[in-house]
Amino acid sequence: MNPVIIIGAGLAGWTTAREFRKLDTNTPLMVITLDSGDFYAKPSLSNACAQKRTPAQLVSTPAAKMAETLNVTLLAHTRVESIDTVAKTIASSNGMFSYSQLVLATGAQPIRVPVAGDAADKLLSINSLDDFALFHARLGAGDSSRKHVLIMGAGLIGCEFANDLAASGHQVTVVDPATSPMAALLPAQASMDLRDALTGLGVNWHLGTTVKAVNTADGDRLQVELSNGQKALVDIVLSAIGLRADTSLAQTAGLTHERGIVVDATLQTSAPHVFALGDNAQYASAGERTLPYVMPIMSAAKALAATLAGTRTDIVFPVMPVAIKTPALPVVVAPPAPGTPGAWHAIEPGLWHFLDPKAQTRGFVLTGKQTARRAEQSKCISSPAF
Ligand SMILES: Cc1cc2nc3c(=O)[nH]c(=O)nc-3n(C[C@H](O)[C@H](O)[C@H](O)COP(=O)(O)OP(=O)(O)OC[C@H]3O[C@@H](n4cnc5c(N)ncnc54)[C@H](O)[C@@H]3O)c2cc1C
Question: Is 0.70 surpassed by the pTM of this model?
């Protein structure tokens, strides 16, 4: 019997394997991944420094243990190069394999913007444990030196790193073209409250501008030039301007892809027996959106495991608020679907509802102590956020 093959050993890949094994202990299962296959919680990358956790300490289950527990053949450090959806084979750096069903769980890639200067290639971004290990080494965590980190992007990930690094004693500067942090997701007052809370930790802001050039300066330092003409001398530039679904394999296989790999309600791609979930997927069940968060992956992996085990199952996403890991001002956001008409309204201090023209609640934001009301507020959304 040809195996079910999962490409990718992130949260989407391993959770699908785990859910599948709950339903089917016999069918051969193979996981192929570019990285080591060690299991870790990616959200912990943006709050590890303040907790003084090293990259090794972030591994919750080593790859070999995952493979043994789930009865999986694991091919680590292996790149899948192409897929033949007619022959039902994949070609990898470790050989060719036939599949009975194939799951693409290849995640997303950091977006890069053009930056001038002779040190533009020194920009770091963090979307894997290996990325974090490189950052951690540059930070010199463990020694007592205080580094100056310039973060490009005041979105969710940028704000989390700003909080974590400032709380760890580093000097932090955040640069963003918007005029306040997480401006696209939060009501204006919540955004300003977050800015003030992070400022209280020592975060320095350059808002309404962008990074124009990064050049080498004395020693290992970097001279950053902003488009408003200001300059900053820093140790590390961390780019946190967003991720884009990795559709490269889907493209070579001729699968339909737009913002992500297009999947139907059963998470099937445009080819039979080929499925996708996680940061690389564009879900029909979510109004053709990508959902690059943990909760959608957990729901999708359960539904997909049932389909792989023989019971075709549609994914139904619940309301999925996202907790932003900014302890300076905890935030929970359940944003309205993009394009939903309406506006944010303050309901109580620390609680906002996004109301449509019929005064129906389409999203909410909680800050500070109000974040404890996440479950209660999820029930206020009058229809799914998609
Ligand atoms: C710093 C940070 C903090 C976050 N915090 C939160 C949070 O607090 N809450 C929340 O809900 N979400 C959070 N997220 C988002 C969440 O972590 C992701 O949505 C999730 O981890 C994505 O999992 P994935 O398996 O889809 O992708 P990935 O974890 O990126 O896994 C992709 C896998 O595919 C493999 N791969 C790729 N291409 C190939 C190939 N050609 N051949 C073989 N293998 C391949 C890779 O090696 C990897 O194993 C955060 C993300 C980041 C970056």
Answer: yes
